[in-house]
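Final report, closing paragraph on structural work. Over the funding period we assembled a curated collection of sequence-structure pairs, and we close with a single example.
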Amino acid sequence: MKKLITGADAAAEAIRLSDPKVIAAYPITPQTHIIEKLAQFVSEGRLKARYICTDSELSSIGIAAGAVIEGVRAFTATASHGLVFMHEALHWIAGGRLPVVMVVATRGIGAPWILMSDMQDALSQRDTGWMMLFASTAQEVHDFIPLAYRVAEAVMIPCMVCMDGFLISHTAEPVELLSEEDVREFLPPFESPLAFGDDPFTLWPIPDPDTYYTIRQQLFEDHKRAIDVWNNAFSEFSKVTGRDYSICESYMLEDAECAFVAMGAASCTTKEAVNILRRQGEKAGLLKINLFRPFPEMEVLKHLSHVDLVLPIDRAVSYGKMGILGQEIRSCIFHAKVVNFIGSLGGKDLTPERIIAFYKKATSCGGDVLWM
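Its predicted structure, as stored:
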């Protein structure tokens, strides 16, 4: 069934179908509409879950973690400083191998105070050990949530599903809703190997340094192995729904001499810029990154091995270095020139015209990082 709904509602519908038993969240713009919709589903009896409106984001993530420890599927959502407030707990959840799924409606970080969207909040958490998906449309938000549960629970690593605040969360688009039958076929019931039973155990012990090292190494290696699990999940999702996704998606890259790289809503704008450049005779293409953690460097290399110029477009910055996506791309690209565009922070409009202006400047005078 196709409906015209916002990204927030698309997320809520997918969460309902994924059947979490505990929902814990604190309202914060621009994700509040997600938990409002979930509260409505619970009150109407359409979702059989314990809904907890908490006193803070730190409480929310803690309750979600506790629910997973008890062996049930859990959900939370947040944005901006709410995600920053969770930072300590994010490390504990990843280190404890708790497959919590969280939606982040990305928003700028103060100071100065800002309500509009960029990716600084989500990408500042890239080293906490969570897997991270970035959706570019309301349809992807809807579909990525059961995918996140499936992979997170298979590898026992938590996952964020990120969408651009306002640009996706508050914008209505046609969304082909998943059916209950499809989700039941694709997403098996959650059976946690950590669930508390009759035999007590310590979830987060204080180990000796060698054991600590081994635990960290295992999480690192399991992130790498999760790439194959994601590929298999995308393939199975396509068989069930007929909708094709992959870790990275290419657009007009076959004969491209220059490749943009983008995530989230920026990839849709960049695609339009590529169309315009193609009409002007420029051999431009786009690599859209869906999975940011674990970072799919082999897939990136495969798609970009033939291009001479790579242009990552960022909506987050690592001060004193460059854009965060730009860093990731430069870390695995050595055969081509990489010029990073800090394209949008705090909701600054990222238009096809600005992307084309960046392209022309990057191809004419170069540079490493461009703010325009």
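Residues 209-241 form the longest helix (33 residues). The domain at 248-371 is CATH 3.40.50.920 (Rossmann fold). We thank the funder for supporting this effort.
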